[in-house]
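[job 4471] stage=fold_predict status=RUNNING
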Amino acid sequence: MTAQSDCCVKVSLRIRPQMANEKIEGCHICTSVTPGEPQVLLGKDKAFTYDCVFDLDAKQHEVYGACVQKLVEGCFEGYNATVFAYGQTGSGKTYTMGTGFDVSVADEEKGIIPRAVRHLFQGIQKRRTEAQAAGGHPPEFKVSAQFLELYNEEILDLFEGARDRKSNIKIHEDSSGGIYTTGVTSRLVTSENELLDCLKLGALSRTTASTQMNAQSSRSHAIFTIHLCQMRVCQLQVNGEVNGEEDGVSEGSISQPAYETLTETESRRFQH
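[job 4471] inference complete, writing C-alpha cells
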C-alpha cells in the first residue's frame, strides 16, 4: 500500500457555517469534528475520514496553508497542480475558491485563487531577487491564463465577450494520455493585478441562476487555468582534458551555464 504522504491526490472537507435562513428555520448542525483527527461525524454513528477537515470556524488562510501552499511551491519545480472544489449549490465553493466579485473582499476573506495568484508572483520576485543577489542570471517567467465554462454540454470561453457565438473549442488527448484544449483564448499577464482582472472578467461572465439555496448560484462547471513557463540557469559539470600538456593543466571540471525550461499548470477550479 502506498504511504499517505506519497499519494498525489488528497481530499479535504470544509464545513460551512449556517446561513441566516437556516438559523431562522431552526435547522440543527448535524456534524462534529473529532478533536485532533481529520474525521467528521455525521449524526451519532457515521464517521468519515479525510486528509484534512475544516470545521465551522476555519479561516481562509488555514485552508490555503494546508491544501494549496505546497502545490504552488511545487509549480516552480515543474509540477502541475489542480484544486477541485466540489459540493452542492450553496455549500461555499465560490467563497472558498475566491471567485465571487459582487462586493469588495477584505484580505482575510480572500479565497484560494487570489491567494495563489499573490503567492505565485511573490515567488517569482523572490527567485529573481535571490539569483541577482548570488550574482547569477535571474530566471525568466511567462504567465498566462485561460478561463473556461462547461454549460449544457458546451465549452464556453469566458474571456470571449460574444456568448451567442458557436464555440470552436476542442478537447484532445495526446499520446501520453494528457488532456489539452485548442481554440481557447490565452491571456498573457505580467502582474498580480492583471491576473486578478482576468479572473474577475471571467467570473462576471459566468452563467448564474437563482436556486432555493443561493440567489446567484453558478449553474456550470468552471476551469480557471494558470500556465507558468520558467527558464532558469542550471550548472552543468563537464569533465575532460583542458589544454592538457601545453598549459600544464590536468583533467578537471568546468562549470558551464545552461538553461532549463519548466512549464507548469496550476490553480484549476471546477464547480458543480
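[job 4471] summary: The CA atoms of residues 13 and 168 lie 36 Å apart.
[job 4471] exit 0
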